């Protein structure tokens, strides 16, 4: 498509670099910004510049944070004996939303994926080992809450091997049929796992 | 949802103001920007700031332009006897893509819509009348290429009344079954119009 202005073209190309946004959507957004009040565009760009310039990560759990140590790691009301290991900050938000977990987190920043050139050293696994080793008497359980994919399983396997000498319990989140889902639509591996991992009816 | 950082929250809220983007998508984009190289975020915000600060509109046809008069209005290869009236710049791009039209454009900036508080004075209709009046011997035809909606029809009706004293032909783009579409899926109004507006088989 030919654009009536170089400015439009540049803006469209930049927006279309974002994941899940194509050129058509980008053009729609650009034309919206032009029609809208200019303050709104500046408020948007301002928020993004501040975000990218000032975002910090917790020095303990590596979650996104406004301070050097995040509010979860600082909180006195969290159970310091359990650490839940997740892929990224999105997972922390999702688990926090369940209100089912009161322990601490450890954000790896991804999973082991040789296809994408991500090995253990690209992730915060050493930091996890150091963290457990430094608080060996305090930490009782590590929950591995990684994606139920090949990469997630590989990462869980690797982490388990790295921390097997510590006296901590290592658990993984349950895999089974999703709540509210229909049995006939569950794939056979999930269904198989849900049978193998059955729990006592209470 | 609770965000781990005020910066994240602000950025998500700003992005979610864009049309068609909800908070979940906004969060996905924000987390992408944080993971991505910071240059990419700055390239994006830079393009948007430049866009909003420097965008110009053609003083003749009101299309988006890098200069005071757009390249279409300036071009010597365009047929100056036909003016195609459209709602916005997106339509100009769409019609240019068809390569079926070599005349000039006039961008109204919307259609008459009392529901949204848009009357004729909010649109570039006076400017269209002035333009035709100033070049009465040159302009032979006005093509109304507005959306086939109530608002589009109202606008077409209004423009037609405003310019009926000039000796220009006023036409509207054909309405009928879309090319490649299946007859049985066309709604009855469209199908009715396509029969009423039938043309000779050639």
TrEMBL record, chains A, B:
Entry's family note: Belongs to the RecR family.
Biological process according to GO: DNA recombination; DNA repair
GO molecular function: DNA binding; zinc ion binding
Role, per record: May play a role in DNA repair. It seems to be involved in an RecBC-independent recombinational process of DNA repair. It may act with RecF and RecO.
CDD domains with a match to the protein in the record: TOPRIM_recR
Keywords: DNA damage, DNA recombination, DNA repair, Metal-binding, Zinc, Zinc-finger
Natural source organism: Pseudochryseolinea flava
Protein name, per record: Recombination protein RecR
Matching InterPro entries: DNA_Rcmb_RecR, Rcmb_RecR, Rcmb_RecR_Znf, TOPRIM_dom, TOPRIM_RecR
Domain Toprim per the UniProt entry, residue ranges: 81-178
Cross-referenced HAMAP family: RecR
Keyword DNA damage recorded: yes
Gene: recR
Zinc finger (C4-type): 58-73
Highest taxon of the lineage: Bacteria
Pfam families assigned to the protein according to its UniProt record, in alphabetical order: RecR_C, RecR_HhH, RecR_ZnF, Toprim_4
């Amino acid at each position: 498509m030919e654009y009536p202005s170089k400015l439009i073209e540049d803006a469209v190309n930049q927006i279309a670099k974002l994941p899940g946004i194509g050129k058509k959507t980008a053009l729609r957004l650009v034309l919206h910004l032009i029609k809208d009040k200019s303050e709104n565009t500046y408020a948007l760009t301002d928020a993004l510049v501040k975000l990218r310039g000032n975002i910090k990560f917790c020095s303990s759990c590596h979650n996104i944070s406004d301070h050097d140590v995040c509010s979860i790691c600082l909180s006195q009301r969290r159970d310091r004996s359990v650490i839940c290991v997740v892929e990224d900050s999105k997972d922390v938000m999702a688990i926090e939303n369940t209100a089912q977990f009161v322990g601490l987190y450890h954000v790896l920043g991804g999973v082991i994926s040789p296809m994408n050139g991500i090995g253990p050293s690209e992730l915060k696994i050493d930091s996890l080992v150091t963290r457990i080793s430094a608080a060996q008497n305090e930490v009782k359980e590590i929950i591995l809450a990684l994606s139920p994919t090949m990469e997630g399983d590989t990462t869980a396997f690797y982490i388990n091997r790295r921390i097997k000498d510590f006296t901590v319990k290592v658990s993984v989140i349950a895999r089974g049929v999703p709540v509210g889902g229909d049995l006939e639509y569950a794939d056979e591996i999930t269904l198989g796992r849900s049978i193998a991992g059955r729990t006592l009816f209470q």
